[in-house]
Amino acid sequence: MRRAYLTAEDGHVTRALDVAISSVLAAAALTMTVLAVRREILDARPMIAVRSWQVSSPELYAKAGNLIGPADAPVTLVVFADYECGFCRRMDETIAAVQVRQHLRFRTVYRHYPIKSRHAHAEAAALAAECAAEQGHFEEYHRALMKDSAELSTEELLRLAAKREHALI
Fold it and tell me: What pTM value is reported for the model?
């Protein structure tokens, strides 16, 4: 039994399917327009709001942490990251690419922010990165943690440390 709203034998989409697709697209366009108008008119707040009372002294955040980039760069980016967070990994890739494009005209200060409730190995990875920093290899180990590892078990942390050009262990 052939249904009228499916594709006919000659390969053309029937009128009912065409109307249904057009209706869905029109509804999606209308929804996106309404959301855009609402955000622009009714919700005048920026998407990411930084309030001065939240960060009373940004210099304090930039003084501690591990530095990647020139120490005398005119711009400092302070990043709070979790080594098991997929979003943090993507952000790190973007920052590294921008640093290359900008010829290292800014520095990045990395601060550890392991989310222990969601990422079981994030705190151990942060501690391992600090050990690498004490040995002068933070950037190298940080890049390995962000790029090479899918699971940051103790064995994986040790493997990454041993894998580096100047072994950390």
Answer: 0.62
